[in-house]
Structure to design on (453 residues):
């Protein structure tokens, strides 16, 4: 039996080095015990892994690295043996992660998802309180994360508050930013954080101006928003009033936000149940000054894994047709009506299922925000789900395609088929003709997008 010891619970670098060594020595997952320095749980019979600085790096898919970065921060002790076991199995089966019915793939994905949610909560609920010390203003926040996410999140807070001096205290670990560098400090208690808060008024104003009524539409989300966060939120007392106003608030409320901020919020979206089985939110992508906005239905299997819209078979066909129509995809903004993959598990395969009207409606919040921020010249709707999302009613694509359609708010729209429709046509001559018609419609839509204001 061997033992690998990490410097701290989320020590990805330590995990990487130990896993490389263990792989090079062909140590089976059940012959490797994982420990964290200071935990005192190490197995006495185990020998420490010998240092092997030259152990070769194993080949792993990018998705494994992304999963590992998150899953290692989970509090569950099984994260380390699970990650190592997956790594060993990936050497023989490089496509293992695509098999969502595999219990280990599923378990690691769930660990990663829980961390991702916790990371989002921390970003949303950390509240700094202003103090003064010999160095001037010093902002201090107390936060109790569920998982080991302080290191994972630190870049976010540095970018946000680069110019201030601040400290985030958590029970296990604290971080101090002196305006230049981060300093890691021991864990703290709530009593170490100031309770008086001269900046509460500022937080309240900020919160009222960025309040997201979408959250209110999901009772479950409110219920789930743990009270422990609310205790630290000065603006919590505003919530009843904001709830009352929520329905009257519209997308122009986010005028001060950026697309990146909206995307960050969408990554934690739970407005409908589709977030549960999906791997991640797949948000739109493209330049913020795009004249043409292309809206599909929802991410497919490959988009769900990659986190990007239209990268699978329908996306490849779309790319070819856009090119034939003389449209540079990188100049368009590409998104979907629904941002999570809806599927049914059949054996090992995830079979696409169309989103229903309620799911499309729930996701409208994000689409509206994308539109409000981008203000494209024209919104090109690919298929019936995109049509429903933007027109707010059922559409018959065959009847309404190929000509300009005004959206309910007056913006320019255009409906055509979804590329997956072309992929389903079996007759070669029909397929050729339909594909040409699609290319012609893309060209027409792009011309209108350029003409529009
Ligand atoms: N189909 C869609 O509608 N969107 C995607 O992103 C991929 C497939």
């Amino acid at each position: 039996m061997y033992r690998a010891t990490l410097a701290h619970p989320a020590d990805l670098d330590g995990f990487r080095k130990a896993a490389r060594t263990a792989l090079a020595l062909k140590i089976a997952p059940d012959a490797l015990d994982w420990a964290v320095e200071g935990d005192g749980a190490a197995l006495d019979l185990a020998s420490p892994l010998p240092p092997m600085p030259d152990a070769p790096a194993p080949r792993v898919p990018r998705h494994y690295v992304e999963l590992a970065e998150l899953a290692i921060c989970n509090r569950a002790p099984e994260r380390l043996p699970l990650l190592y076991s997956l790594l060993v199995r990936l050497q023989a089966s490089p496509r293992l992660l695509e098999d969502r019915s595999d219990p280990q793939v599923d378990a690691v994905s769930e660990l990663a998802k829980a961390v991702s949610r916790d990371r989002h909560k921390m970003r949303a609920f950390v509240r700094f309180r202003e103090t003064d010390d010999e160095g001037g203003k010093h902002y201090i926040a107390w936060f109790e994360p569920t998982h080991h996410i302080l290191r994972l999140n630190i870049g976010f807070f540095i970018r946000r508050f680069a110019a201030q001096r601040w400290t985030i205290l958590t029970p296990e670990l604290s971080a101090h930013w002196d305006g230049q560098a981060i300093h890691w400090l021991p864990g703290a208690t709530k009593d170490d954080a100031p309770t008086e808060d001269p900046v509460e008024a500022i937080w309240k104003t900020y919160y009222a101006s960025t309040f997201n009524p979408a959250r209110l539409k999901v009772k479950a989300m409110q219920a789930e928003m743990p009270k422990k966060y609310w205790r630290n939120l000065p603006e919590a007392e505003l919530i009843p009033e904001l709830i009352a106003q929520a329905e009257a608030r519209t997308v122009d409320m986010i005028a001060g936000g950026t697309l990146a901020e909206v995307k960050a919020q969408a990554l934690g979206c739970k407005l409908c149940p589709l977030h549960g089985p999906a791997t991640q939110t797949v948000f739109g992508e493209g330049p913020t000054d795009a004249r043409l906005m292309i809206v599909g239905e929802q991410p497919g299997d490959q988009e769900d894994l990659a986190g990007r819209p239209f990268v699978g078979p329908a996306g490849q066909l779309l790319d070819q047709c856009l090119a034939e129509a003389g449209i540079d995809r990188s100049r368009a903004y590409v998104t979907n009506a629904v941002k999570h993959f809806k599927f049914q598990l059949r054996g090992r395969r995830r079979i696409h299922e169309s989103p229903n009207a309620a799911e499309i409606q729930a996701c409208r919040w994000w689409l509206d925000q994308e539109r409000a921020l981008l203000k494209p010249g024209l919104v090109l709707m690919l298929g019936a789900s995109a049509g429903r999302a933007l027109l707010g009613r059922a559409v018959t694509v065959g009847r309404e395609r190929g000509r300009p359609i005004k959206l309910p708010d007056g913006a320019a729209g255009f409906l055509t088929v979804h590329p997956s429709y072309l992929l389903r046509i079996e007759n070669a001559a029909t397929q050729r003709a339909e594909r040409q018609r699609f290319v012609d419609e893309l060209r027409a839509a792009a011309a209108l997008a350029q003409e529009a204001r």
